[in-house]
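Escalated from tier 1: flavin-adenine dinucleotide holo job.
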Amino acid sequence: MSDGAIAAERVLWRAQAPVSAPAPPLRGDADADVAIVGGGYVGLWTAIRIKQRDPAADVVVIEREQCGAGASGRNGGQAHGWWRQLSILTELCGAEEALRLVRAADAALEEIGALDASGELSCDFARSGLHWTATTPAQVGAWEETVAHVERNGGEQVFQRLTQEELWARTGSRAHLAGVLERPAAAVHPGKLARGLRERALALGVRLHEGTAMVALERGGSGTSAADAPAGAGAIVVTPHGRLRARRVVLATNAWAIADARLRQRLYVVSSQVVATAPVPERLAALGLGPDLRIHDSQDRVLYYGTTRDLRFVLGRGGGSVALGSRLGAGFADSERWAADAASELRRLYPTLADVPLERHWAGPVDRTTSGLPLLGRLDARGDVLVGLGWSGTGIVQAAVGGDVLASLALGLDDEWSRSALVDAPVARRLPPEPLRWLGAQLVRGAVVRVGRAQLAAREPHRVVRALAGLVPRGPDRRR
Ligand SMILES: Cc1cc2nc3c(=O)[nH]c(=O)nc-3n(C[C@H](O)[C@H](O)[C@H](O)COP(=O)(O)OP(=O)(O)OC[C@H]3O[C@@H](n4cnc5c(N)ncnc54)[C@H](O)[C@@H]3O)c2cc1C
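Tier 2 regenerated the structure:
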């Protein structure tokens, strides 16, 4: 397999949440009101939200593999809202709309929890909170600015400061020097969530074609490729065995969107590598740990970890491979090198688990923007192709809010979603062309790794290395 694809059984979440019968590929020509490309959380939520607003709308989702094959079936299962992004959201959308979006993400988190509780969408939801910690002295206090901003602006109850004893007891590791708990956050099973959204979309009457890749997008609806065709004429999604004509097309293809040169200027893609142990209930119990623990520390190369419902330990690390041009190489599916790197972090944080065998490892692509906020809106002035991309490693809950925005735009509604200041917002700086961009990214990534190592060894990194590492586009809470 290539292009960032990985066999379902190699990814723990997908192996644990298999889909019983794949949907048939598209064969022949078809029409729809809305065609959605990509069957991850974003594409599926968009389809669901459209059906919730207009049950008569004819919605077709096409997915090149199977729903959940991308980031949605491979992620860290840390479901949190948009509070950390409040500051950048305020900058872009104004205080009122920023708070409305943050509260919408909180409501989406509630909605997922309620669906799980009612059995309508079982995804092992647990309101576990998310621990934001420091595992080196240099990281201590990384959260202070964000926490202070959130507390001053309506989120007094969001973060809970933890004493060192509380932190050690909750995380089972004295490697955590300090930290806060993001209280509204939750643990989910990524594969079960993807499967549940797929089932929900199907139950609402969404038509789904899996094993169906978009190979070209034609504009104008006339069947001829016409980039300058009149607005409102719709678009045609071209697939290997059929053409899907729709009034509106939504691109929800995550990192794979960099195949389009226009989107490549606004997105950059890095891999995130995950390792998972076998179930080790006794070993976790010895650390005082149960299921559904969620933690990340404050390194520039994001490190996220915790326990599963079946009592494994799972750890992921961002910033591995960097995409070159439009290509997602093998490192976006899995990498021995980055798996060993992640395993060494697991040993550092939990030395008593050092001998526990790793059962699986896999990687996934993360579609980043320079601001850490998604590109939501129209691909260009014509308005018949919409994009929901650039989730920047924070998409489990935000995909539902993105679905609200994209659904209203796709249906041509005039409401708080279509009017949101996040629609068509300038969330991303243009990135330099290749090969400059890849070379620059390698240099900066190398510097970030060296700064991380220096901090671990309690050394001051060289000032040139520090300056280079400082060039990495920074999300509002330093995560990447
Ligand atoms: C390893 C990892 C860990 C993460 N951890 C977290 C976390 O803990 N918390 C959090 O909030 N977020 C996390 N994220 C991010 C989160 O998973 C994503 O933001 C979210 O899943 C985005 O969903 P999506 O629908 O945009 O993308 P995807 O799930 O990638 O869906 C895109 C789909 O499009 C399909 N596709 C691509 N090209 C085509 C084409 N040409 N034709 C048809 N189909 C196509 C792909 O096969 C894929 O299924 C993580 C991501 C990764 C990779």
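Residues 37-43, 62-65, 69-72, 74-78, 213-214, 252-254, 256, 272, 274, 304, 316, 364-366, 391, 393-396, 399 surround flavin-adenine dinucleotide (CB under 6 Å).
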